[in-house]
Each structure stands twice: as C-alpha cells, then as structure tokens.
Protein 1
Amino acid sequence: MGYDGEAVWQADLRMMRQAGVNLVTVGVFSWAALQPDEHTFTFDWLDRILNLLAANEIFVCLGTGTAAQPAWLSAAYPEVLPVDACGQRRRHGERMNYCPTNPTFRRFAHQLVRRLAARYRDHPALLLWHVSNEYGPLCYCDGCAARFRAWLQARYGSLDEINRRWVTPFWGHIFSAWEQIEPPSQLGDRSMQGLLLDYQRFMSEMNLEGFRQEAAILRELTPNVPVLTNFHGLVKHLDYFAWAPYQDLIAWDSYPKADESPAEVAFRFDLMRGLKGGQSWLLMEQTPSQTQWRAHNPLKRPGEMRLQSYQAIAHGADSVLFFQWRQSRGAAEMHHGAVIGHAGHAQTRVFQEVAGLGAELRSLGCCLLGARTPARVALVFSWPNWWAVEYRPGLSASLDYLDEVMRYYRALWHHQIAIDICAPDSTLDGYDLVIAPLWYMVSEQQGAAIERYVAAGGVFLTTYFSGIVAEDGRAWLGGYPGPLRRTLGIWVEELDPLLPGTSNRIVIDEGAPLAPGTYACDLWCEVVHLEGARALARFGADFYAGGPVITEHRFGQGRAYYVATRPEPALLHRLLGWLLAERGITAPLAAPEGVEVARRCTATQEFVFVLNHHREAQTIGLPEPMSDLLTGQTYAQQLSLAGRGVAILVRSQSAGDA
Ligand SMILES: [Zn+2]
C-alpha cells in the first residue's frame, strides 16, 4: 500500500515469479477501495491485478474485504460501530471495528460479497475465497442485547429455565421479563457465571454467523471455490472447533514470539490439524522477517523462517504464505516484515531466503500434499471449558487453562510423538491415550463417552479441578469429579488453591510403576478419597499429607489416571513417558533435545521431518538408512543437521525393499 503506478505491480510480478510464488492473497482490506461511496463500485483496479496475476500463472486467494468497513459507512450508519465493554460506542477506525450482529453492516457486506463473486466467479486466477480477516469483534450494544435475548429464548425456551440454569435466585437476580437480561459488560452484571458463559457462546456464534452468511453467498455463486477465513492467535472468544465445520480448509496465521519454545508453536499447528480431524491445513500468513505489533520485534535470524515453515509443514500444513509481499509505505504495519522491503528490490537476505524456500518447495512437488499424521495420543482442548475455568471470581486468579494444557502438551512433545488436539465431543475411541488437563466443564454425555472409552481398553488421564460443572456452568452434585467419578474411581472432597509462592510435595508410593522420588507441586492441591483407584503418589505436606495425589484406576479393560495438583515438569515428563512406553508409543527417531521429529504419511510413503531448533549443528542416529527428500542424499547410520537445519527423511528404496 502507498505505491502508485502499474510499474510497481509489474516489478512485483517479476519478483513473484523469481521467488516461486504461485498463490497470493488479494483484497483483504479493499472495501473502501472497491466501494468509494454507498452507490459506487470500482472494480477496474482489481480486474487489472487479477488479470496480471492470471497472465503470470499466479493464483489468487480473494478477500471479501469485509474486515474493515469504509469510513463513509460508519459515518452514515453509526449503529454499525460496536459498543465496548465500558458501554462506549467506538469511533470509526482500526479493523474488526463493527458490531457482529448489526443488520446494516451485514447488508452492505453481503452486497459487496455478491458483487465480487458475480464479477470474478469465472476468473482463471480465482482459487480460494478469504472471508473477512482474523475475526473477532465483541460488542455490548442494544442490538446485540436484543439478539442475545432471542438467542437465549431459542436455547432455553423460557425465562424459568434461564433462572434455573443460571441459578439467578443467588443474590436475588431472578428475571421476570426478557428485557431485564443485559449483556455482561463492565457496566452490567459480571457476577453470574451462566450469563457470562452464554454471552461468550453467543459472541462466538454471532461472529460465525457473519462468516456463514458471506460464505453462503460465495458458495451459491461459486460452488467449486473453497471458502475459508484465517484463524490467528488463540482467540479466547472464538470457538474454532465450532467454526471448523464451516471452513472448506483451515487457514492459520502463524506469528510465534521471538523467544517462544517450538513446542508452543507446534501445539497451535496440531490444533489446526485437529480442527478438521487431521485434514491438512494452509499456513496462510507468517512474517518473512519480523512483526511490528509487539513491544519488541526482533528479526528472524537466517534460516529461522525456513525452519518455521517446515515446522508448519511437518505438522500438517500444505502451503507456505507470507504477510506481507511489499512493505507498506505507511500506516499500521509499515515496519512489519515483507518479502520486498522499502528498498524495493530482490537483493536482500529476506528475499533470497523466501526465494530459496520457494525453489525448494517447487522441487518437492506434490508428494506431501494431503499427507496425514497418524497419532495415538489425543489431547483434549475446549473453548467452552476455557471460558468456564477462567470465570472470575473463581478459586484462584492463577488458574490458566492454556498454560495447563501446554504443560501436558510440552511433556508429550518432548517425547517426540504425534499428538492430536481434539474437542471433548470428538470420537476418541481410536486413541491409545487420551489426556484432558483441567477439564472443569464435563457434560453427562462426555463423561459417559470417557467411561465407555476406558472400559473398552483406553487409557485416560485428567487433572485437578476436573468434572466440576456441567455445560451450563452449574456444579455437579453428589461429589467431584462428577461424571468422571466412576471412571477415575475417586472422590474429591476439597479443593485447595495455594497462595502464590507456596508449594507442596509429591512422594511416589513404594511399588508404584514410577521411579521412587519426591517432586514439587504448586498452584492447587485436593483432598482425594480412593473409591477403587490406587494411589501412585501422595502429598508430602500439609493436613492432607499422605493423601492420594496421583491415582490409577483399572476400569473395565482400561485405566484412568488423576493428577490432583500441578506437578513440576520433570514429573510430568516421567509420568507421560511411562504411560507412552506402557502403550508402546515411541518416537519415529531418537533425536537430541531441541531437535524436533514429526511424521506425515501418505498411502505409499512415510516422511519423517527432522527440525533442528538449535543454532548449532546436531547429529541424529538413524535406525536404518534413510534418504533426505530435500537434498536427495542417503544417510546410512546418522544424519548431521546444521543449526536451524531441516531434513525430510523417507525410507530409502533399499531399506524399503529389505
Ligand atoms: Zn452490537
């Protein structure tokens, strides 16, 4: 943005060809440029760009442009602007700055989408539709309040039912008319767990409804063009599992922090693969060099962008795209990394690295496309559970759902095994091991499914503060962990969130399958009674010293484990290592710490990605001769990888024949 003249486009096209670019995203924020006023549309510039791209054999992921409405629209129809949690109507600007339920916003958005689809439906460059961008407006306006009441009416049927589900008699909050229900803004009622939970569900659904309506227009006019939006961050108020069925492909914008562990990045990649049950996904955005919107935005070092791109592919990505192609001359992201910087030419490190990757990906051809990652371990992740567990006031302000999930993911990731991230309602039957950290909100059906899974031979592990509430946020009666109690063979009598800086100890029981020892634990402890389970470890301190902290229950053909605290990472590593070994789940290769191993398979080939996250070279022993898809070289016994180096190993022909 900020460049004049077609000469710049021509230069861009030359350099895109040079870099091996075959797909570009166009028009994401182009609403104001396509519709300069309420009655005028100007598609000629977009026609020209799409024609030039087609002539250069570059496909287009075409944005619907609806992530930021034009200033004239906000000025003429101020009701499209959202009302924030403090009750103030926002002024025009930014992006995602609209009310997600507003009918006027939607009417204009649909008009634009229909015109775009009608105009470009047969354009040879059109490959994908990119609806809006990085969704997520929240709103507390009167329009949203009215829509929320209708949504509640459809969900619960009557006010009596809402009063019952939300336990409104507490503090005397009984509703006697629908109009009395207000969104839980900072000015409103934030003391009612059921109200907050349902407003989060509602906001996720209203954003999704906006997506679905635009997608429906596109699917009507271009039934053969896949439709998607791009997910980003882990947006707490958007339930990606609920969105996934409406995406033809999952698309992810990956912006790891400069010092972030590769395990954190891998978790988000695995989540993207999990959203559609293992289907490969698109890496829709990443910066080629640096971000601009963090407090500090260091460069990606030489080789880092390539390594991160292959890490995405290793975890199921079928594409590598960037934000942005040419660095904007000004405004919000003018310093954000770009393939072409302000210098305007290709003689840069960043361009050379992007072009190098482009050439490599071209040489790989199509062999990896659609390859799956067979996983025997499922990690349960749930947005509604996230909302519920972090409801405040709660028992501990330090409870952090993502952090707890990451502790278990990290421990598994260090064992170099494939992990599927699953919604609690997904079918878990095929997995050898199901891990559900901090599973606070468990429905009757989910509890029953876990019971069947374990009875049939599965191994299940969950942690403290699980099985506490049902889907509506009301506590399970009759003893925690509610619908998981029979499967786990325990009763949790008391919950003891610890003060910051305090801790307890975990003492492994004699005769337990874990090596004897004492480990630290903090954050949370519980008073646990055994009801058929046995203790593998006990608390070492406080009035519940000697009480069970890690339990094992043999149930039917399977086993269920409970961890009644937050153990130090070393113990989690050992506990999960033991469970994996028990089930015979092993890494495809034994690699040193900091070298990641991940696998993708097609019907005929197996690819083992080896990713060296160290700056220094590393040596990896091989169980058999294997060849590297990237270099064509075959390695007999060991592979030496340069710092930030990558190999994609396939079984060598001779080994395969043997
Ligand atoms: Zn609103």
Protein 2
Amino acid sequence: MAHGRPFLHFHPFGDRFCVDVRTASGFRRIDVAADRLEDLLVELRQIEGVVEPNTGLFRYGGGRHEPPSDRTQGPRGAGRFEVEVDMAKQIIELVVNGHRYEVAVEPHWTLLETVREELGLTGSKEGCGTGDCGACSMIVDGRLITSCLMLAPEADGRDIVTIEGLARNGDLHPVQQAFIDTGGVQCGFCTPGMIMAAKALLDVNRSPTLDDVREGLAGNLCRCTGYAKIYEAVLAAAQGLHRGGV
Ligand code: FES
Ligand code: FES
C-alpha cells in the first residue's frame, strides 16, 4: 500500500458489509473513509441486487479515542446501507529507543498514534497527518520517516528512535542542546521533528554545509523561527560532534 493513501477492503459479512478502512491519520479518517465509501456505494448501485438504487449510506468510522456518538454520521439518503469498520487487532513488536514492546494494534493505526497513545511517548507531534510537516519524524531502521504515514503493522519488528531516545543519562543530545543554545526553539511544536531530521542528517554527514542542512530539513516545516536559527543549530551541533559529542 502506498503510504498516505486511504485503503479500503470490502467484502460481504452476513447480511451486512464489512469494510476495513486504513488511512494516513486519525483526524482525516472519518472524512476520507466516508468519501471512499460514497464512491463504493456508487459502484454498488451498478450491481443488480446488491443495494437498492436509492440506498443511502449509514456511516460509521473514526478513531478509537472518539466516543461512539461521535463515530456515527447519517443516515443519509432515502434508504440505509450499513457499514462496519473492521477493528480486529494484531500483536506487533516494536523496539523503541532500545526498549522492546508488544502492542495490540488495529490495522489502520499509524506508528505515530501507536507510539504516542499506546506507549505514552508524546514527544513526536502530529501537525498535518499527511506527510507534509515533519513534526512526527522518527528514525526507523536508520531512516528518517514521517510516522503519521507509516502504519503500525508496517513497523513490526523494526528499530525505532524517537525524540525521547536521544538524551543519555540526563544529558541532552548535542543537537537538542544546540537548538536551545542558538534559539532554534520558539513554540517548540516542530522541534522534535526538526531534531530527528537533524540527527538523521548528522548520522550520515558529520560536516554538513548550509545547503546540506537545508536539504536535510526540507521535509520539516516551522511556523515560528524563519529557519535561520534552526540551520544555525544544526551546524553548531555538527561542530559539537566534531569536538567529541555523541
Ligand atoms: S504529522 Fe506527519 S508529516 Fe506532519
Ligand atoms: S518553533 Fe514553532 S513551529 Fe517551529
């Protein structure tokens, strides 16, 4: 499945239909799923005997943290077409910041929401949920990823580093310290993702140029700093690493 694209698996289930909806992020889930279901219903109307031509859509959906009353929209249209979201859980194993976890996840949960809400590691943020802002950045098997676009089952067995995993014995990682020292933090919402992107860059390039830093952080958006202080922080961190940091 392409990351970030909603995925819909449809099959008959008794006298109803069971639909497994997987989308990129929690807050978009209801709308995206409902749109896909509307499309599906249009197709079903073409198949004789499946639904009545004027059958409407009764919507269920949404994230697991929403109360049931918020998860239902409808009925819409003249009739009623009942849809259920398959919430079967599976056990996955995650190694996060060196700690091994077994987590029961639903197939559509993202890595971001699983780490934040199941493991309680809330340093990684959800800014957009669509892979655009980088606030959710983590390092998975050595690669920088946007965890809002990775499904939790895709992370099964993988080694994950989050912002919480950078400090050692109470000492901030040089990148974290540099962000503080240079004033690269204002509201701080983008900062965990920025720092993870900077770490991923410095892991492979200990002597980045300003252009290297710009490119390395190109997937991370900041609405406060204007970026200059952030780039300055990463360059300062690189110098710190040369002086014998982590
Ligand atoms: S929350 Fe993942 S890229 Fe914005
Ligand atoms: S410091 Fe506020 S978004 Fe970057």
